[in-house]
Amino acid sequence: MVLPYPVIALGSLLMGLLAGFLGYTDPYILPWFMILTAATASLHGLALGLLAAFFSAGVLLLFPGFNIMALALLLLSAWLAHGIGESLRRAHRRAKALAKGQRLLTEALEALPQAENREALLASLPERLAALGEGGHVGVWVPVERGFRLLSSIPPLALEEVPASGVLGRALQEAQPVHVPDVRQEPGYIAAPGLNVLSELALPLWERGQVVAILNLERPAPFAPEEVEGLTRFAQAVSLQLDRLADLEERRLLAELSLRLQSATTLREAAEKALALLLEALHLEAGFLWEEQGERMVALAYRGVEEPSLLEILRKGLPYGQGLAWEVYRGQSPLFTARYAEEPKAIPALKALGWRTMAALPIPSAKAPRSRRVMVVGQKEARLWRRAEVELLLLASRTLGLGLERLTEKAHHERVNQLFLELLDKPLDELYGRILEEAIRQVPGAEAGSLLVWEEGAYHYKAAFGYRLEDLQTVTFSQEEQLLWYRLGPKKAQKGEPRILSLEHEPIAVISHQTAPPEIMDTAGRAQEIQANLCLPIPYKGEVLAYLNLDNLHDPQAFGEDSLEAAHFFAAPLATLLHESRTRKLLEEAALTDPLTGLGNRRAFERFLQEELKRAERYGHPLSLAVLDLTGFKAVNDRLGHAVGDLALIKVAEALERERRNGDRLFRWGGDEFAAIFPHTPKRGAVSAVLRYAKAIQGLCFDGLCLGVNIGVASYPEDGSTPDALLSAADARMYQAKAQGQAVVA
């Protein structure tokens, strides 16, 4: 059991008095008073020790044997005890201070896990450590573009930002604690207004291996080495907590992103949900999700944009090569900047609006040579990107890529099925253009294209996008010429395997010139501009019905495995669609064709007349028609038999076809009657045409029996504005010609 100093002092005084009253002499009394003096000096210092020495000397005067030597011994004991006690008192005060500091740090450490996020954690540190400031201040500073910004402080400071120099700058640059015992000896010290500061301690706070803030303590008293060590360990604990919070935030956000993507039913919905979540989590103003579509980046979704100039860009899309999105698309590396205006590919409209902080990330796709989508997020205020934010955005872009890939495949299936149902009953001329347009939309990398269809022993251009179709239609290709362009051989063509040509590996224009005239392919077909081509054969039961060509005029690497997969998926329903449409056309033509002569029948005449009359009314074009009645046919049929009669009708049809002008339509009305329609032709032109018809028919003879013809002509609008009126007029004139013995009456 250890007795406290006051008890020892009081006990010594009582024992000395007791020894004196019992009659003991000075040598027996003095030691007790020396103990009293020493205990007092050791506990309370030299002044009280001397007072105790003189008090003891005064008491000793009451007893016999006192001398000056006793006083000297008392003074000596006071001085020696003071020397020994001073170090003990100093150690005691230091121990109390350290205990207090450790208690405060322990309380602060216990409170760290209560912070919900990194911002709350950092902002709470000054309040948790305020008692350690002892007349100075505790603050948290975060790095900004040109220095540090004060996040929180106790007491509040008049400073909001300081340059990247001084003690804070050293702590950031050296990435280790900086302790300045005497700031008066620090050349770069930045004084806080209104504070009396002697010592400063700057402690870096880490997150994912990066200094993200500086915990700064300033006070008028020096920091003990143990305090520096304790606060350094506290900063390490805060850094571990920042890492933990970053991990929690990352897992939470990715889980929420996955849920939102799973709930989305369209690409646009998924992109909008992803942007909304990321902007909220990172406290950013705006975001865009761009999708490469040939020569433009098209906005799949955007958020936080209200400026008319930006909305106009979003409406039109980004032209090839303009903006960070295209730079990231070509390089396939993310880009983070807090100086957007200094970027060489910055969009002038964004620069004019003062945007400074931007991040552009490729959204990966497993089958594409390049990410075809790019996410851009940012804000106007300058902001340094933290490593945790960079890693979070990279992980989010991968998660987003998986979600969009699933929805892209789903959209391809739905769109092709919808197209099949929409076009199944459409005319072939309308069908071709829609097929090509949808293929360019569906196949990644395509921005132009053409569709060649097998008809009448050759491949003909039936649709084109980005090219002059009317000029291309003057060119046809044999099977051998088309296989030369395809380059993979007939077996793969019959399997419908797509192939890719890239200007980086093969001269596309030279190959094109081997199959068609260069003067046409370089002008109408822009062969010299094509950077990449994807050719897709469309086979059906061993016959290649068509070839679909998809082109990119800007990027030799535009097409990849994802393009081949989309094209291959497109081929099967397209082949079925073309086959069904061609079969339907053949059936319709059979239903509208006279089986004997091959001319259109009466049903075809009525349909064509109705269509042409509507067109003439809409555009104000002239229109004429003629009714032809053979003479001499009954004698041929009765005398020479029905076989010769049928032959006579066939020869009449052939004679009419030889004299037919481009655009004129011929029909067998029935029996020995024929009809003709002359679009864009006034009556005078129609009369000239039917006179040639009459002359051709009058030259037909069978075993001495020759044919003739009576023709009536009517024209829109002078002879009527309805099919019945025009037919009645032409029929009446045909009978008039018969009665008058004339070939033509108009």
What is the gist of this entry?
This protein is an alpha+beta fold and 746 residues long. It is built from 24 helices and 25 strands.
Report on this structure.
Helix content is 51%, strand content 21%. With 746 residues, it is an alpha+beta fold. A 6-stranded antiparallel beta sheet has the order 3-2-1-6-5-4, sandwiched between helices. It is rod-shaped. The N and C termini lie far apart (145 Å). The model has no long low-confidence stretch (mean pLDDT 86).
**Strand order of the main beta sheet, please?**
3-2-1-6-5-4
Helix count?
24
Q: How large, in whole angstroms, is the Cα Rg?
A: 50 Å
Helix content percent band: 40-55%
* SS elements, strand count: 25
Class by alpha and beta content: alpha+beta
Distance between the termini: 145 Å
Rough outline: rod-shaped
Mean pLDDT: 86
Q: Give the strand content.
A: 15-25%
Low-confidence parts: none
Biggest sheet layout: 6 strands, antiparallel
Supply the key terms.
746 residues; alpha+beta; six-stranded antiparallel sheet; 24 helices; 25 strands
